[in-house]
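Subject: mismatched residue count in predicted assembly?

I count 1024 residues in my input, but I want to confirm that the predicted structure covers every chain. Input:
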Amino acid sequence: MKANNNLRPRLKVRRVNLDTGRENVVVISRRSVALRPDVFRGFSRVELRSNGKALLATLLLTDDGMVEVDELGLADPAFRRFGEPVGTLVSVTPAASPESLEFVRRKIQGRSFSAPEIAAIIDDISHYRYSDMEVAAFLIGSASFMTSSELLALSKAMADAGTQIKWQRSMVVDKHCIGGIPGNRTSMVVVPIVAAHGLTIPKTSSRAITSPAGTADTMEVLARVDVGVEQMKEIVAACHGCLVWGGHVNLSPADDILISVERPLSLDTREQMVASIMSKKLAAGSTHLLIDLPVGPSAKLTTALEAMRLRKLFEFVGDHFGIAVEAIATDGSQPIGNGIGPVLEAQDVMAVLSNDPSAPVDLREKSLRLAAHLLDYDPELRGGKGYARARELLDSGAALKQMQKIIDAQGPSGVRTDLGTLTADVTAPRDGMVEAIDCLRFNRLARTAGAPIDKGAGIKLFKKIGDPVEKGEPLYRIYAFDQPEFELAQAAAKADNGYVIRTPVPGSENRP
Amino acid sequence: MKANNNLRPRLKVRRVNLDTGRENVVVISRRSVALRPDVFRGFSRVELRSNGKALLATLLLTDDGMVEVDELGLADPAFRRFGEPVGTLVSVTPAASPESLEFVRRKIQGRSFSAPEIAAIIDDISHYRYSDMEVAAFLIGSASFMTSSELLALSKAMADAGTQIKWQRSMVVDKHCIGGIPGNRTSMVVVPIVAAHGLTIPKTSSRAITSPAGTADTMEVLARVDVGVEQMKEIVAACHGCLVWGGHVNLSPADDILISVERPLSLDTREQMVASIMSKKLAAGSTHLLIDLPVGPSAKLTTALEAMRLRKLFEFVGDHFGIAVEAIATDGSQPIGNGIGPVLEAQDVMAVLSNDPSAPVDLREKSLRLAAHLLDYDPELRGGKGYARARELLDSGAALKQMQKIIDAQGPSGVRTDLGTLTADVTAPRDGMVEAIDCLRFNRLARTAGAPIDKGAGIKLFKKIGDPVEKGEPLYRIYAFDQPEFELAQAAAKADNGYVIRTPVPGSENRP
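Triage response: the counts match. Full output below for your records.
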């Protein structure tokens, strides 16, 4: 039915002020002069064409006001992606599903994907040809089982879909954490240590989607993170490392789309997580990669067995593509450091790099351990000396100096970096010892307080697991700027403060 | 976080003129005085509360114009379902997913549903608590395998979710076709025959979703079909049968929601089809059910093996719930009758009932065969006499008289019943014999021409499989009212006329 676009009246582009997330959405009048929308009903997806451009979009109907009968309303991001000015004449036709959706249907019925099929799907997804529901069909259809070949093909296809960075070096090291632990900003300590040693570590990080901060959000407190590939290369040439936002570099763009659909559905498939991470590392040109796998009762991995299975998946993909992958299980039983939220986390990081006596010990120790693994990749370094070397670089101030150099190279970000002016302390309801801190709860609480939108919003923990507490003693402080959010966070903390405090057995310990 | 609804400013309800299909959608300003929408981003689903009412909805953002900073825009159908007037103050909170979505996640990971889990899911779905994407997750997660227990539980839960009709009779017969064959309006012949015999056959039918006509659309050419349960009972009491729209009776409302998501994804799972049909029959109070399973190259079932598997699923569910089910494979190699589209199909039906010599033989014969199966349920009738009795009722005019009675009881519909004024004949490109007619193609073609929105739009076939044709001889006629749609349909027919015409081997037959 594509042959006769010219037979129907075209519609004038209008911008509709509606943010529809990542999905292309267009609005047509129920009395449109083009094909009557009732006819479109059976299709729901339409294709726009103008000046050689084409766009697939989901169709909504309106009765009046929003668009005229001779207009086609383009919501954000459809308007931006179509890139034609208001008033441009476009033809609109009912759109069939992308052909690759047939592979998805077969997968749902139990077949496996071939590599070219996965490549076609990822190509369509990264060009916004899938609706959110079609993306969901791909993810869910693949969730119950994914073969080794599918995992490799998916990693490769996702890496191929975006920017691919080439480095003129034999060794490009990288680290990555699978996430879930509040305050876990080790990259911002590890990168300066490793870069100070002289290894190349061009770190790209994500922004928060549902968490209160991604490494890119926290680094932005100290420096600009939205740098392009060329500038990133210059920074790495000058400093051996960088800490930038991966989204601006456009590594594995399909991954961002898949994640935007996984999140609302809380889908969490191991193979998809591995493909997501490895595709970015492949595209980023990493040769040696350290994966941080936190294990804990409220972490993404709750048992050593789960961590081992995931480690093996990472190793399998790494081996196939010639990336030296090491995946290590770490303590994910509680938040790392004291701060949760960009400004508070940046303070922790700078305290560790400055050898401030009040710096959080767990953040320092974990960062040293991860840095040691990376430094041990250096053939020049004597076996087993990674940790000592990392500690030397941190204690001597070399790492701090390197961080300052990276910050200067990336330039100032201009974001507001003051701490939230509304504060409230949450206190211990009884005497005892901290037995557990719920990571999920604190991610949500810091987010409710305004992080990462307000960089200075978040939570500062005063007590960690094993600390004794007295009734009425502050457990943590909430920081916020916005009154309703502040009250919302306080109420949430009141309903469940996120701490488990074990009361000592009477007589077995002294009680005040 | 529900404890503190009163802490945040409430928003005023505004109606946003946007039809979002079946999904609840609300629009909030990016500068809203309630919680800032950036905070909502991580959630995407919100809960509205006012005057004891609650509604889950998907959130869209706007910069200005559409809603003010103190307003909450409710699109259709959210506005209708919330049922509060413009200006009502509502609280808006980020909404967690319905708890039953956790069962869906586990199913995706390979577990089976328990019956109470399925009941909880269907309850949430039928109360519009699932987003479209969450509905898709349920459907796709269940698509690759569904146990017998799951199939039974799903059929039961769907039946329980809506109206359940009780008949004070020991035998209530029904028929159902799985669809896919254009023009297949046998119900409109079968119901009057069976009702004329005196068996109770309260037929509820669907409207077209992506096809050019459902039986309810075609019946509406002759009579009103949107009758409620009570009136339906009166009609059946007077006429032994009826032909009404199931949607108005609210049988298995979850099914309509599931179908609205299955269609755009072209999901087609046997178990879901069986649960969908059987849930409606359970709710409708049927005791004896005949299922029509058309088999053909462009039908939903392409082999006898597929038809047998599906038959066994229907029998299994029927046996469990005490419904006598008979499922028979029928010829689905081409459209049934000559007309495709409501008015044309109604003409075929009335021609058969009137014993018009030009009536399509295939529609007559298939209807007689189906009616015979149903009549054979009557214990009063001598074994094997069903066909003869059906034919007697049709040939004598008793069926026509019964149809007139049903039409009178349902009353006039008031729809326009004239044929499309724009017509074009599509002719044979060469001499030969009709070897195949593509059902999918003709469904789409008639829909493109305007059916079922324009009752009089559609296709009239002049040639069926086995008919000899000469080059230039009309194969079918397109009827339309709308010029652009007329041209679109003609262009589509030009690109692929939907017929396969086999040229006779030269010399083996006479050629003109």
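Residues 422-502 of chain B form a domain with the Aldehyde Oxidoreductase; domain 3 fold (CATH 3.90.1170.30). Marking this ticket as 'not a bug'.
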